[in-house]
């Protein structure tokens, strides 16, 4: 495992979306982590620990492959930011930032980073794989926008 860590690199992606919904509604949806499979294409489940609500178990399914990890919420500021990092399983970290635009709605900005072997990171940075991942993240945010507009949560 040490060799993998020493020869790994973090890859980061950021995307944002404008949402015609209040900051309170947008925050309410994102802060309920177990709802994320409703708009995140590759996330098949999120289960928040009843004993420690800052911990959650995530499962990702993509192209027949399944990965899981335990995540720890490292920073929560209502209506502003949810930040996390994995503590086991697939190495990842990131943040969802929220910007209130008043009567115009909200902006949601998602930054996700994950650790991959250095060779794979070089391929991802110089190929269509990077565009594919970025496109999927953008798609998740577009699905969120539609979900938020349709949702009955206030």
Low-confidence stretches: 1-6
Mean pLDDT: 88
Tell me which CATH architecture applies here: 2-Layer Sandwich
Total beta-strand segments: 7
Order of strands in the sheet with the most strands?
Answer: 1-7-6-5-4-3-2
Number of domains as seen in the coordinates: 1
- What is the highest CATH level, the class? Alpha Beta
CATH topology: Alpha-D-Glucose-1,6-Bisphosphate, Chain A, domain 4
How does the major sheet shape up?
Answer: 7 strands, antiparallel
Chart the SSEs and their pairings:
Blueprint: H1 2-6, E1 8-19, H2 23-31, E2 43-48, E3 55-62, E4 65-77, E5 81-89, E6 92-100, E7 106-117, H3 118-125, H4 128-150
Antiparallel strand pairs: 1-7, 2-3, 3-4, 4-5, 5-6, 6-7
How would you describe what is shown here?
It contains four helices and seven strands; from the N terminus they run αβαββββββαα. It is of the alpha+beta class. It has one domain: Alpha-D-Glucose-1,6-Bisphosphate, Chain A, domain 4 (2-Layer Sandwich). Strands 1-7-6-5-4-3-2 form a seven-stranded antiparallel β-sheet.
Q: What descriptive keywords fit this protein?
A:
4 helices, single chain, 154 residues, globular, alpha+beta, disordered N terminus, 29% helix, Alpha-D-Glucose-1,6-Bisphosphate, Chain A, domain 4
């Amino acid at each position: 495992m040490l060799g993998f860590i020493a020869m790994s690199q973090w890859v980061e992606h950021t995307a944002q979306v404008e949402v015609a919904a209040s900051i309170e509604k947008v925050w309410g949806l994102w802060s309920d982590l177990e709802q994320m499979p409703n708009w995140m294409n590759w996330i098949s489940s999120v289960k928040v620990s009843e004993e420690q609500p800052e911990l959650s178990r995530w499962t990702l399914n993509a192209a027949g492959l399944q990965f899981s990890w335990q995540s720890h919420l490292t920073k929560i500021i209502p209506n502003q930011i949810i930040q996390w990092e994995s503590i086991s399983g697939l190495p990842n970290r990131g943040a969802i930032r929220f910007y209130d635009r008043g009567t115009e709605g909200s902006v949601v900005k998602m930054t996700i980073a994950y650790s991959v072997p250095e060779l794979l990171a070089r391929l991802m940075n110089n190929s269509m794989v990077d565009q594919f991942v970025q496109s999927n993240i953008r798609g998740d945010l577009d699905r969120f926008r539609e979900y938020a507009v349709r949702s009955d949560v206030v």
